[in-house]
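Incident log, structure service

09:12 report received: a user says their structure output differs between two submissions of the same chain.
09:20 pulled the input from the user's history:
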Amino acid sequence: MSEPLHTALSLAADGVPVLPLRAGKVPFGNCPACAKNACGGRPNMKIPGPCTCPHPCHGWAAATADPGVVISSTWVRAWREAAAVAYHPGGAGLTVVDLDNAEAIAWAGANLPATRIVRTTRGEHWLYQGVMQSANAVRPGVDVKSTMAYARWLGPGTGAMTALPEVVRALTVKEPSTVRLASHAITMPALVGGGACPHRTPTYLDRGIAMAEQRIAEAREAVHATVYRTFLAVLSTHGRCGCLTEAHTVRLFTAAQAKGESPRHCTDAWTNALTTLGLSHV
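09:34 re-ran on a clean worker, output below:
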């Protein structure tokens, strides 16, 4: 039994949907019967029509936790050629934050809750319990892999896995293309639960604001979307506890305006972030 097949069977036994990868970390391509979606696709690819193809032939959507499929004759042939094992995070109830370089890892360390970490060739995978939409390049060096995506299996990792936080979900939220213009007054969420901040220390907030300023300052493109996602991330972490002050907001607005954003757009982005998180009427 090949090493990839042995690993795949072990994962499938734990309910993790797996698939073989060729050299270059890519799935096996469609067989002739399925080429150009002639088969009608797979239901979990949200393409009309079923596909009963026995080959590991539809990328992430072919991932399976059925040991009978994993060791079937057509799959075993693929495992003999496989260079690695991949899995479907969403199918396993997981979200992977794929950090591609040291800068991305530093950002995660300052902004994301600690969780299980898997070392990769160039960076780290941070694994969270929970499912969300996948998206590439949510910020420099950062991809999010969960539903309709695959991730390479590189071992179980280290550390306790934590629940998927709102700050990760916020990374894939795009600013609405049509927004209702708000007044220029800055709207701050009210204090909740007596106003005591449940986070680590005031330093945690200060560091988060500094990282948010840096993220905006480093934006090379899609500045509007970057500003909105940054506001959303800050509010998802601190918007409900009342620890944000007008001074913090002014710092964020100043960073955005230094990148060419107008005061009106800053206010609109802040208001939209509050609305998205359900804080506009807190």
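09:41 both user submissions now match this output. Likely a transient worker issue. Closing.
09:42 reviewer note: The radius of gyration is 22 Å. The chain is about 35% helix and 15% strand.
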